[in-house]
Fold this protein.
Amino acid sequence: MHENALVSVDAVTSEEDGAVVVRIPLADLPGADDGGSWTVLPDIAVAESVHDDPVEAPLDTVVIVEGASSRVVGPESSTARRGSAGTHSVDGVAWAVEISVLWAVPFDGATAATYSRPEVVLVTATGPGPVPPGARVVLTVDRRVTGELTVVSAAADDGKPVAIAPQWEVDDDLGILGLTLTEPIPAGRSVRVTVEGSEPVPADPEEAARLAANVRITSGSTRPELQLGSGRDDHSIII
């Protein structure tokens, strides 16, 4: 800083070759002619995104002093910070969803007094591409409490029925209802699925804690690398 002064300057922002370029005119800063040193603190607005986007390797962040004069000293006139590792590129249209769940208590009695199961599942495609056919919504419950889950209805947000392929599976005390999409969900649109449970498998009420219910979406038979994580695509309820 120059004499502990704190000033705000207008920067010129442009886009060049996929990069955002910000130019700060040092000559306009107070005390620039006196050889003072400055610390640049950019106020950067970052767009919020719920997606873990599969993008190409990010460009380096580079600081360059342009039009250098004899007063520019230091080991380098530019520095670079490497982009974060782990990013990748893919061919095809990426997609993601947000899941909302309406939970319900399935039955009265000691075995269900503190248990909830999914009753309504709302799947919203958040883009950028549609949720492809073959993607699978998976509902898991403790079948000692809810019994077998079956689909009551499935409809788009415009009220039109949606065809899905349900499959009920059993893994010990766990009941799994897989709902495979047979048609795409366009970005920005939703599908609402209502399910119900049958009588539970008889169980000793004094047995250990129940298995928590969960709703999630998987890529299913589609390409898993195109599914983006939204942070809102996996729901469990604490019991």
In short: The first helix runs from residue 143 to 146. Confidence is low (pLDDT under 50) at residues 70-90. The CA atoms of residues 126 and 186 lie 9 Å apart. The chain is about 0% helix and 35% strand.
